[in-house]
């Protein structure tokens, strides 16, 4: 069987990593690249740098990876849908919920594979946590909290920290717990003089009464990427910088006195286990899953419908910060 023909538009800081993986995975040939700004990282190799999506479509790729600024995602994605070309579009899927939904509908109605590039879903620590949660290792889930903090990335110019970074946490939280967001509250600040927020603290409710909290900013001098999942049997901490997953078990009280029974039956500190898990590159895993989806194989991709829901939650955070109220999303599904 011939290899899939892949195209790439957007050769910036993320596009160069997509190009590397498109050249590395089995069953795919990178046949064309495009960027009107040129190839600042020198990733094109022997390929011509095409000027726009029309020139890329003319090369007849089977699928295209879109790594342009967010404001161009809808225009490029719709052109690919009209041309009958599958697409993996970087997160956030689009600049707003309406555009994201139009993309999802266009690819669905054309019978095409459309995916959103939420790379954190493929982090080995979270992949392992998802399996363990499905197996009931934590029992009933109580809370999931994320901390995603670090310095400002110069590559970001057209969205704030919510759509750029909190979108990761929204997707991974919904995916790892298999629950949708219902209520969203947030507080934002902008301290660096840009047009968008650079810090958000959000408190949310997911289906089944599960609480979530998300602390995200571009104002911290060191990077922190933690997902903390608490349940009736203990707690998982996934560090997605190191791809480590650690289990903190609730302790067992072996001797109980009458006085103990009269006290509150809270948890105690138990054993700590850091799991030994394989650590493939998340972006490689994302590309392999998208390739398999295009080939009609079983694959775990972030669908455009899921990507649109992430944008919806992002905009609910922004709305909540502006109004000072919870935003109810239960009527939007």
Automatic annotation (TrEMBL):
Coiled coil: none annotated. One of its GO terms (molecular function) is nucleotide binding. Pfam families: GFO_IDH_MocA, GFO_IDH_MocA_C. Residues 132-329 form the Gfo/Idh/MocA-like oxidoreductase C-terminal domain. Residues 5-114 form the Gfo/Idh/MocA-like oxidoreductase N-terminal domain. InterPro entries: Gfo/Idh/MocA-like_OxRdtase_C, Gfo/Idh/MocA-like_OxRdtase_N, Gfo/Idh/MocA_Oxidoreductases, NAD(P)-bd_dom_sf. Belongs to the Gfo/Idh/MocA family. PANTHER family: BILIVERDIN REDUCTASE A. This is Dehydrogenase.
